[in-house]
Amino acid sequence: MDSFVRIAPTDYALVTRCLESGVGGVMAAMISTPEQAEEFVRWAKFAPRGRRGLNNWGHDGKFSLTPVAEFCRQANEKTFVAIQIETVSAVECCEEIASIEGVDHLFIGPADLSQAYGVTGQMSHPLLLAAIARVSRACAAYNKTFGAVSFAPEQAASFLEQGCRLISITSDVHTFQHGITAVKDKFHELFADQQMC
Q1: How far is CA 137 from its chain centroid?
Q2: DSSP per-residue codes, 101-119
Q3: Which contiguous run of DSSP H or E holds residue 159?
C-alpha cells in the first residue's frame, strides 16, 4: 500500500523532503487558485514538467541505485499530486485546476468547505452539495479522480454515485474514541461498579 502526505502548499523544501523520504505523493491543503496548484505541481515534478531539484540519493531514488534519467522519468510518471478543494474560490476555478497536467486528484474537505460557504457543519446544505457536484463534474471532464472526507454512510454512498474514488471515513482520533466507547460498553458493569469514566 502506498502513502501520500497532506501538507500546506507554502514550502517547496517540505514537498521535496516528503518525496525524498519515499512517499508516493503529496496533497496540497487550502489551494485557492490554478496558479497555486500549478506551482505545487512544479515543486513535485522534475524537468521538463517541473523544477524539483534533482536528488536521487533519497529513499525514492533507491539511494542512487536508480539511474538518474530513469529515476526522473519514473518519479514524474508515478508521483501522485492531489489538490484539496476547501475554499469557495477553489470551487469556482475547479475546472481550471482539474485541467492542469500533473494534477491527478481533487480532494474535497467538506467541513472546511461548509465553513467557507457560511454553513458550517451542514453537510447536506444545497450550497455544499452543489459545490461537491461541480468538483465531481470537473474531475470527470478532465479524467481526474476526486475524493472526500465522509461523515456518514449516506454521504459516502452519494460521493460514490458521483464518481468518488477516495473516501476518508475516519481518523485516528475517531477510531480511538470509538474503540474506548466499545470497551466501556462491553464492560459497562465494571465501569458502573467502579464509577469509572
Answers
A1: 18
A2: TT--EEEE-HHHHHHHTT-
A3: helix 153-161
Q: Tell me the helix, strand and coil percentages in the chain, rounded to 5.
A: 50, 15, 35
Return the SS3 of 74: helix
Indicate yes or no: pTM above 0.85: yes
Instruction: Record the cell numbers describing residue 154, joined without a space.
Output: 449516506
Query: For the segment 172-186, what is each residue's pLDDT rounded down to a tens digit?
Result: 787 888 888 888 888
Cell 519514473, residue located:
74
pLDDT in tens, 101-145: 999 999 999 999 999 999 999 999 999 999 999 999 999 999 999
* Residue whose cell numbers read 484539496: 84
Q: Classify 78 in phi/psi space as left (phi over 0), alpha (psi -120 to 50) or beta.
A: alpha
Burial label for 142, CB within 10 Å (0-12, 13-18, 19+), is: middle
d(CA 159, CA 167): 8
DSSP assigned state of 60 = G
